[in-house]
Amino acid sequence: MGLLVSWGLNAASLVLLAWLIPAVHVSGFGAALIAALVLGLFNAVLRPVLILLTLPVTLLTLGLFILVINGFLFWAAAEILEGLEVRSFGWAVVAAFVYSLISWAISALLFGQRA
After folding, report:
1. Which of 58, 61, 70, 113 is nearest to 94 (CA)?
2. Range of the domain at 11
3. Rg of the chain's alpha carbons, rounded to an integer?
4. Is residue 67 a contact partner of residue 96, using CB atoms and an 8 Å limit?
5. Mean pLDDT score, 52-75
6. What pLDDT score was predicted for residue 115?
7. Which of 46, 93, 37 is nearest to 67 (CA)?
8. d(CA 36, CA 40)
9. Number of domains forming the structure of the chain
10. What is residue 62's DSSP assignment?
11. What whole-number distance in Å separates Cα of residue 75 and Cα of residue 63?
12. Which residues share a beta bridge with 85?
């Protein structure tokens, strides 16, 4: 049950993100649900592999390269899905950062999680 709630909250975060950032467009809540699912799968499967492959660059940039990885995954999801659009890769990096902040804030408010 908690997984479904988390999925719905991430979809709501995507809708809020599209409202906050004009370079991101989500066509509806159904598209946000699908995008949240794809982003979750990308983060579970591809993100650890990409972090491992780019470990030297990540260490040299003191971890800031992870923002680029997150932006790339957000941009890749937008390229694959029809209901999610991002204007450019730079906006995808910004959107990924803001999306993570919104998701964290909603989870912290509803569930009392701090980290």
Report:
1. 70
2. 2-111
3. 14
4. yes
5. 96
6. 53
7. 93
8. 6
9. 1
10. T
11. 20
12. 25
